[in-house]
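General statements about sequence and structure are easier to judge against a single worked case. No coordinates are needed to read the tokens, only the vocabulary itself. The sequence in question and its structure tokens are set out directly beneath this paragraph.
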Amino acid sequence: VRIYRQQSSQFPAEQTRYIIMEKAELLRDADANLLPALLRLQELVEDNVTVILLSEIVWEAFRPNTGCFEPLLLHFPDYSKDELKQVLSKNKHPSYSAEFYSSYINILLGVFYSVCRDLRELRHLAALNFSKFCEPLEAGKAKAGDTHKLWKNIEPHLKKAMQTVYLREVSSLQWEQIQQMEEQETGAVRG
């Protein structure tokens, strides 16, 4: 409250101010008075301010035990598979056609949609595995329309990636290094 008052006195509001807090469920671990104070901030600072809490869990799971102001709840449903495909396809690689990237996203969603609908996680997976999808093209072993060959090349990588969905225990660079080491070991065993 004190910090808000200091800031707002320096920059008086002509319109509503918005404080948007992502991952609001983390407020459960903060001081017990913080969440109730945020929910009553407009009243406490006597200013036109709105606090928006964004969370992936329901309000009931982190509502404070002390009586506090009940917020207006808005539920946003998960993206459908088609909506995810549309959104993810917008991040196409500049070196490849929109059609080619869209077919890659379709394959990716075919593997991950049943276990993961988180846009950020799917975007991360798409970026992480796209180079593996393109390897047969770059090596001249397949053409952009050879989805079967492209699928066969990326299938083992997507299966491995399935084991780490949501974990983020490895960075993108570490993941690529692990895959390269495994490929070298597999090559040494074959050779």
User: Anything to note?
Assistant: Strands lie at 17-21, 49-53. The chain has a mean pLDDT of 83. The first strand starts at residue 17 and ends at 21.
